[in-house]
Every structure is written in structure tokens, then in C-alpha cells.
Specification:
- The protein has 400 residues and is α+β, with helices and mostly antiparallel strands.
- 34% of the residues lie in helices and 36% in strands.
- α2 packs antiparallel against α3.
- The protein is rod-shaped and about 155 Å long.
């Protein structure tokens, strides 16, 4: 054999050994992976359980203050000054709006002048009453003296008649003076009442804050004409907030004062969209004839102060029903797809499910699972469909 042929055989032998080594290494890695797949995964199980759960009811409402007021005028007058703007904090009694009061002031001055004139008239009437009373006393004394003289035939019939007439006239003047005094008293009382009305009307020109709070709306500016009933400002008290909503007639039967409610506020408010625990304080008995709804008021916690007018969603507990639940940790979500691992005969099987609302006691399973089946809680990343598992004890859904 030539040297070239020997070299060719040596190269072929080395290539064959390399192929054998590569093939051997490949079989070793495959065998290792297969061994890992055959090794059981330790998991914890829970049993799908049927429980009674209240069906949630949700309604939308608006945040309001416990105290709220619309400041309006009681008289027709031009607006002279508005001392506040929206967002300003005010205290009870602070001046909010001033109206033109010159005409009302003139009426008050006129009423006061008429009252003083009535007081003078009353004083004159009482003076006349005193004079008439003195005249009546004198006439009575003269009549008594003439009567004694007449009995002794010492006075003529004409003198007796004159004394009689004098006494009658004095009594009439006394009665008239008494009537004049009573009339003057009544006139004075009427004018004093008119003066009080004029003073009160003049006070209407200054509108004050009814309580401590925050101005939420300013609806008028100086120069505009304020009329009775027209809203000028709106003010909210600084106390607790509440949510007012309307519940339809069917749902209102399950809402009662004292019930707890979950309140989710709009995300644009300072609370950041967190869920608060509210308390039902009022359920209106009268149903709106056109809407067939009840008005429900839910107070918020004292430390929650969202802006009034914020939209809120309130969730109540409705009628109870039987639902199938599993621990929330057993449900895996991938986009819009939910699944659980069901263990049967020591093997985990991936199963798609349809879920309902999660709660503290577990997640509701609407479809894809039967009561009594075992599911894996907190499935490890290595768990796959068809994998053999070893199980450990796990509490049932809702257990402490």
C-alpha cells in the first residue's frame, strides 16, 4: 500500500471517530432531557368548591357634600360686588355678594320716619285721653253735687239737666280719647312692623355664607341683575362626602340603610381611582313616577374628600346564588385566555376556563370545570400539560 493510500485511510478513521463521539454526546443530552420530563413536579392542590355568593349590583352616581347650598337673591337688584371666586374657602357669615341697596335704604328711612310720627301721635292721643279723663272726673263731681242740691230742692231742674248733659259729654269724650289711643297704638305697631320689614329687606342686599365651606361655582358678576330665585353662587360644606345615585326599582329592594358598599371613584380625582368602603345612609321611599327609581345616598369615609361632582361607581351585594370557585392563584391569564391545571391520576392537564368576578374567597368559574375537581395553585413555570406531579395539601377556596 502506498503512502498516499495510508494517509487517506487515517483521515477516514479520524472522521468516523468524530461522528461516533458526536452521536454519543447527542444521545446523552436527549436522555438527560427525557429524564427531566419524566421527573414529577411537586405542586399544591385545591378543590373546586360550590359556595353561596352575593351577586354584585353596580350603579353610577355623583359625589356631593353632606351640606350644600345655592346662594340666591330674595330681591331684584343689580349686583354691586362679588367677593369670592370658585375654590375660595369661606366661613359662616362671610360676605359673598353685595346688591344695590339705595332704594331699600330709602324705604327703611321712610318707614322709620313714619314710625316716629306714629309715636308722636300716640303721645298726643294719650295726652288727650288724660285731659278727657280729668274732665269726666270734674263732670261727675259736679253732677253729684247738683243731684244733692236737687234732692233738697236747692237746685233748679235746668241746673240738674246741664250737669247731666255735661257728665254725658265728658264720658263720650273719654271714650273717644280711649279709642284714639288704641288706634294710635295699632298704627304705631303697623308702622314698626313695616320698618322691620324695610330693615330686613335692606339686609337682603348683603348675601352671606350660610356655613363653613368652599365656593364651587360662581354664576354671576357685578353689573348683572339679580332676581329672586336666581342662583348666584354654589357652596359645599367642608364635612364628609357622599355619593348620590339612582337605583332601579328591582335593585332597590336589596339596598337598605346600614349596608356596606364599595365605591370606585373616577381616576381623575385626588384619590387616584381607589376603591373606598361606603355606608348606605338613606334610601328614598318614593319612586320617581317617570323613572321608577330610588334615590340612594352612600357616605364615604371621613378621610376621603374627592371633589364634588366626581363620577363614582357603587357596588352593592345583590341576591345570593351558588357559584363554583377556585383559589385566584390557580387561574393563569394569557391575554384574554384563562386556564387552570387540573390534576387527575397524578397527571396535570391544562384546561381552558371562563371566569367571573374575583373575590376574597376565590375566583368564580363559569365554564370549563366541575365541582370536586382538583386544580394546581401557584403552578410552577416548569409545569406543562401532561406532566406528572406529586401533590401536597392545600386549603379549600375561602378557607382561612
Amino acid at each position: 500500500m502506498s503512502t498516499a493510500s495510508q494517509r487517506l485511510l487515517a483521515v477516514l478513521a479520524l472522521i468516523g471517530c468524530g461522528v461516533c463521539l458526536v452521536a454519543g454526546c447527542g444521545r446523552s443530552g436527549s436522555d438527560h432531557t427525557t429524564a427531566e420530563r419524566l421527573q414529577p413536579v411537586s405542586v399544591s392542590l385545591a378543590v373546586a368548591t360550590v359556595v353561596e355568593r352575593a351577586e354584585p349590583m353596580e350603579a353610577g352616581g355623583v359625589v356631593t357634600a353632606d351640606q350644600t347650598a345655592t346662594v340666591s337673591s330674595r330681591v331684584t337688584a343689580p349686583v354691586v360686588q362679588v367677593t369670592v371666586r370658585a375654590g375660595d374657602r369661606v366661613r359662616s357669615g362671610d360676605v359673598l355678594v353685595r346688591l344695590e341697596a339705595s332704594e331699600m335704604t330709602a324705604r327703611r328711612v321712610q318707614a322709620n320716619a313714619a314710625t316716629r310720627a306714629a309715636e308722636e301721635a300716640l303721645a298726643a292721643a294719650r295726652s288727650g285721653q288724660t285731659a278727657s279723663a280729668a274732665e269726666q272726673t270734674l263732670a261727675a263731681a259736679w253732677h253729684a253735687r247738683i243731684s244733692q242740691l236737687r234732692e233738697r230742692n236747692a237746685a233748679t231742674a235746668q241746673e240738674f239737666d246741664e250737669a247731666e248733659a255735661r257728665l254725658t259729654a265728658a264720658a263720650a269724650r273719654a271714650t273717644s280719647a280711649q279709642a284714639g289711643v288704641e288706634q294710635a297704638v295699632a298704627q304705631l305697631a303697623s308702622l314698626r312692623a313695616g320698618a322691620d320689614v324695610a330693615a330686613v329687606t335692606e339686609a337682603y342686599a348683603v348675601l352671606r355664607a350660610p356655613f363653613d365651606g368652599v365656593i364651587t361655582e360662581r354664576l354671576i358678576d357685578p353689573g348683572n341683575l339679580a332676581t329672586p330665585g336666581q342662583a348666584l353662587l354654589r357652596i359645599d360644606g367642608g364635612g364628609r362626602r357622599r355619593v348620590e345615585l339612582h337605583a332601579d326599582e328591582a335593585r332597590a329592594a336589596f339596598i337598605h340603610p346600614g349596608d356596606r358598599a364599595a365605591v370606585a371613584l373616577d381616576g381623575d380625582n385626588p384619590t387616584g381611582g381607589t376603591v373606598l368602603e361606603g355606608n348606605v345612609v338613606e334610601v328614598a321611599r318614593a319612586i320617581a313616577a317617570d323613572q321608577r327609581t330610588f334615590t340612594v345616598k352612600v357616605t364615604l369615609p371621613p378621610d376621603a374628600a374627592p371633589r364634588t361632582g366626581t363620577f363614582a361607581r357603587v357596588r352593592f351585594d345583590g341576591p345570593r346564588r351558588r357559584v363554583l370557585i377556585v383559589p385566584s392563584t390557580a387561574v393563569r391569564s394569557q391575554g384574554q385566555v384563562q386556564s387552570v391545571f387540573v390534576v387527575s391520576g397524578g397527571t396535570a392537564h391544562l384546561r381552558l376556563v371562563q371566569t367571573g368576578d374575583p373575590a376574597a374567597d376565590g375566583t368564580e368559574i363559569i365554564a370549563g370545570l366541575d365541582a370536586g375537581e382538583s386544580v394546581v395553585t401557584n403552578p410552577p413555570a416548569t409545569l406543562t400539560d401532561g406532566r406528572t406531579v406529586t401533590t401536597g395539601a392545600s386549603p379549600p377556596p375561602g378557607a382561612p
